[in-house]
Write a structure and sequence with these properties.
Elements (H helix, E strand, L loop, with lengths): L1 E6 L3 H12 L4 E5 L24 H14 L3 E4 L2 E5 L4 E5 L2 E10 L3 E3 L7 H4 L4 E2 L2 H4 L7 E5 L3 H11 L4 E5 L9 H8 L4 E4 L2 E8 L3 E8 L5 E5 L2 E4 L3 E3 L29 E3 L11 H20 L3
Parallel strand pairs: 1-2, 1-6, 2-3, 6-17, 8-15, 9-10, 9-15, 10-11
Antiparallel strand pairs: 4-5, 5-6, 7-16, 12-13, 13-14
Length: about 300
């Protein structure tokens, strides 16, 4: 029996574990993949307080080391089900675990294009966050894949840094808000290519460009760029919790800044919950809030 089980080993989950251990609670962190979360794909991070720069992988390792030093238990397993009750039973492919409270911090994965070589170039030319990685492309040429609000926001930010930004949208129109489209149109170094899909990536050890194809006539051409920002949406990892906590239309756990879910003893932290800003700093803030709330809840369970 644990006081707290944290599901997810990214910044939100590891922070929750840290705060709970500092409160002298017994803690288990369950992660089905690699510890550290999405930030481990970033080759250099410069927007984490306290670090001039650090690789995402190094940051993730430091967080894991800190949690292990605090003597939290960790388990590499996939959660299959959570059985609700006075005590919560977390069913995994490695066995069942019981706790007084649960923090769900499973994050959200960036939706990929699903093309050969895509995984290889993540962190070597493919990025997902202009706020995080845009400065690395100052004075260079980049492409933004997508035409929704996120893609337009990325392109607008990158236009102030890069030499040229090319927006590649598969539809014949942009789907982002008119206000964002108007703002993008004021950027003289932005080109928008509509009705076009990405067919492949060009490069050796690092990305050198993308192969694009016009949907209307099948014309294929190469677009040589220094970096590609994929902005076609996020995929939350919450399917297994659908019967336990409320999800919105996109699959995010409905939860505010208090990290409450509406299910007693179950809290949500980080990118898996409904929120406006998904950054490492907001994830760790959620982890602290959720952990303290979970500790208070656990104190009332006999």
């Amino acid at each position: 029996m644990y006081d707290l089980i944290v599901i997810g080993g990214g910044p939100a989950g590891l922070t929750a574990a840290l705060y709970a251990r500092r409160a002298n609670k017994t803690v288990l962190v369950i992660e089905k993949g690699s510890f550290g979360g999405q930030i481990t794909y970033s080759p250099k991070v410069e927007n984490i307080p306290g670090f001039t720069e650090i690789t995402g992988n190094e940051f993730g390792e430091k967080m894991v080391e800190q949690v292990l030093t605090q003597e939290a238990d960790v388990e590499c397993a996939e959660v299959l089900e959570i059985k609700d009750g006075v005590y919560k039973t977390v069913v995994t492919d490695s066995g069942d675990f019981t706790a007084k409270a649960i923090v769900i911090a499973t994050g959200a994965k960036h939706r990929l294009l699903g093309l050969p070589g895509e995984e290889k170039y993540i962190g070597e030319g493919i990025s997902f966050c202009a706020v995080c990685d845009g400065a690395f492309y100052e004075g260079k040429e980049v492409a933004v894949i997508g035409g929704g609000n996120s893609a337009l926001q990325e392109a607008i930010l990158l236009a102030d840094l890069a030499k040229k930004v090319t927006v590649v949208q598969n539809l014949d129109f942009l789907t982002g808000e008119k206000k964002l489209q108007d703002k993008l149109a004021t950027k003289s170094n932005v080109e928008v290519i509509l009705g076009t899909v990405v067919d492949g990536f060009i490069g050796g050890d690092s990305l050198e460009g993308i192969r694009i194809r016009k949907e209307a006539d099948g014309t294929v051409s190469d677009l040589m760029v220094d970096g590609v920002f994929v902005a076609i949406g996020l995929v939350p990892q919450n399917e297994v919790f659908a019967g336990l906590v409320p999800l919105d239309g996109r699959g995010y756990i409905i939860s505010g800044e208090d990290c409450l879910t509406g299910t007693a003893g179950v809290f949500a932290a980080g990118d898996c919950r409904t929120k406006a800003i998904r950054q490492v700093t907001t994830a760790v803030a959620d982890g602290a809030v959720a952990a303290l709330a979970a500790c208070a809840y656990a104190d009332n369970i006999q």
